[in-house]
Amino acid sequence: MESLRCLTHGHVDKVTLLFNMTGFGMSNMDWRCLMFIVKCLESYYPESLNVILVHNAPWIFQGIWKILAPMLDPVVRAKVQFTKTTDDLYTHIEPSHLASALGGRNTWKWQYPSIVPGENQRMKDRTSREEHQCARDELCGDFEQTTRSWAATNGSGPDTSRELLAKRLRAQYFQLDPYIRGRGAYHRTGNIVGNGLVTFYYPRANGTDSGEYEVIGHEGSKETLEMLLRTQERNVSLHPSSRT
């Protein structure tokens, strides 16, 4: 989920998860994995789940699910759906996005990129981590206090200060991130740049020509936020009456 959140921007805030249970039986049934993920979504990522598709589940799992389902929040439980055919999957996933092994047209194969020695060296730098964390804690305190003051006016007053602090918080996080988050597969492949930008590579269908790159997340990148901050702060200094 953390990797997915780094890869999504804008209004994309829900995920569709697919569990392919073809070939599972009593000897290799891993229902605890499904329950763990569902409970994590329920507890730590509220309203971020679109649907969980449990595909081609064996009969034994159906019985287990009847026991487990009442333990979940009814809203989350309703988002767990069982599918049997490719047409069932097409209801939720475009054929071009569905893996060919499941009857779709997507022939892309996942290859795990090897760990890069020293890629998490900065996580051992406790001095820098504490410095960035203290700066963030201070910003969080300022944002909370400013929000309280703004809320005291029932939201009727200008909130320029809150907007500035929100941008500062987003921009500052990119400085803290490498000290508290381990680099993952999508960092190694270059999809997650580390400044809020995300890149995707699309190979040509014929496989002969070089493909195309797409870069998303410009509006929320560190550089864009810092540029907006400079502009907004300059405007506030020129027009001090706009301060909250």
Topology:
Layout lengths: L1 H6 L7 E6 L10 H14 L4 E7 L3 H10 L5 H5 L1 E4 L2 H5 L35 H27 L7 H21 L4 H4 L9 E5 L9 E5 L5 H17 L6
Parallel strand pairs: 1-2, 2-3
Antiparallel strand pairs: 4-5
Task: Describe, in plain words, how this protein is organized in 3D.
- The structure is a single chain.
- This protein is mainly α.
- It has two domains: 2-102, Phosphatidylinositol Transfer Protein Sec14p; 121-242.
- Helices cover 45% and strands 11% of the residues.
- The protein is built from nine helices and five strands.
- The strands form two sheets. It has a three-stranded parallel beta sheet with strand order 1-2-3. It has a two-stranded antiparallel sheet with strand order 4-5.
Q: Name the beta content range.
A: 5-15%
Mean pLDDT across all residues, rounded? 86
Number of domains: 2
Name the shape in a single word.
globular
Could you tell me how far the N terminus lies from the C terminus, measured between alpha carbons in angstroms? 37 Å
Helix content range of the residues, please?
A: 40-55%
Strand arrangement in the largest pleated sheet: 1-2-3
Report the radius of gyration as a whole number of Å. 23 Å
The quaternary structure here is single chain
Question: Which structural class best describes the helix and strand composition?
Answer: mainly alpha
Helix run count = 9
Structure summary, number of beta strands: 5
